[in-house]
Amino acid sequence: MANEELSSGDDAAIKAIATKVKTDQQKEIQELQAFISSYQPDQATSNMFNMELMESMEKSGRQSDLQVLTGDTDQDFAQLMIVHHQSAIENARAVQEHGTSTMIKEMAHRMINAQMAEIEELQEWLLANKEY
Length: 132
Hints:
The protein is mainly α. Helices cover 81% and strands 0% of the residues. It contains five helices and no strands. It has helices at 2-8, 12-38, 47-66, 73-98, 102-128. α1 packs antiparallel against α2 (12-38) and α3 packs antiparallel against α4 (73-98).
């Protein structure tokens, strides 16, 4: 979504958010990959954790499918990114609840804070740029 915003969006503020989202998520992916390559699980993944992740993904997919797209790249990016971030927060909270590694729980905490801040920024932009 960030790539589409960067190539087709018009608003400088939303493009800046897209750039930050892309940079932050690439960093998070690298951190998670490093964690996965070095972590030795001390227990099997719980069924409850798996169920929570699946429910979150289904909820996010339904919400995205129900989102009315305006055809305005900036508006659509902001709205869809909020849904995406809300799903990421739910997943990170599941990691905090079910995870056993202090490192992954700290990563989840940082991700939650970052996603919440970006949601607030996107919501403020949407309110300031609403067309009704």
